[in-house]
């Protein structure tokens, strides 16, 4: 995936060490990050991601449900809506629920149906946009042709669909485990249910973000479970999403102001936050790698200046 001359990716521990070193001068770190964000036009890219996310969410749900028809699974649609209810602001969830229920009311074919194939193509547009945004963060021109990027995005969409189905299966078996504990132990079942749910939820988020940061840039990236950018994404998006949901629920009246468009606006803003913090995490990872390479280059120059001319000539031979 990487072109010739691409510098190797530093170890994850080195990235965290570089972040700790950068926090010695937090204002400088923020200024550098803001400068990169402005140069890469990250806010505009986040708006484009929100558009692609909005176009992709319902085809993606349709494809996941079509994929599930080849497996003996029941209740996947209810599980998807339950997770959406916990994540989305109220108005946005109402829109998603209404649209998904309308999709479910129509006859659905199998995975090989033309509708599912078209849904897969549309849903993969979101991943293609993420690839473009992270390439901007790493300052690279993707060497892959457009059709390769699209096939790669389709592969990521299929992988995420299978992963969501796997998470659903694990949740179902986790519920059965909780019921078994409840019958034999008692009150511990409530705690066990919470542990199972949050373990699967957090693990799913971390795995998805790790896959995006490892696979989407057009340069070779190793698999790392928890980059500094992943922490920025999880904390930033969770905090901003909670604050936005609280604002919408307590103070805003989008339905009264915009009518039926209120739910669409809320969903778009939520997706904008998702895209923004996903790109900001990539920018932070790229900035830390850049700082490490700059310091290593400066150290090599300093070592060369400190060596006597004889040693430098010998090393050149």
* Strand-pairing-aware structural class: mainly alpha
The portion of residues forming beta strands comes to under 5%
Which of globular, elongated, flat, extended, rod-shaped describes the shape?
globular
Major sheet summary line = none
Number of strands: 0
Q: Helicity level, as a percent range?
A: over 70%
Number of helices: 12
| Tally of discrete structural domains | 1
Distance between the termini: 34 Å
Average per-residue pLDDT, rounded, comes to 75
From the alpha carbons, calculate the radius of gyration and give it in angstroms: 23 Å
Which consecutive residue ranges, at least 5 long each, have pLDDT under 50?
1-5
Element pattern in H and E: HHHHHHHHHHHH
Describe the protein's architecture and organization.
The protein has 317 residues and is an all-alpha fold. It has one domain. It has twelve helices and no strands. Helix 3 packs across helix 7, helix 4 (76-87) packs antiparallel against helix 5 and helix 6 crosses helix 7. The longest helix has 46 residues, at 261-306. Residues 1-5 have low confidence and may be disordered.
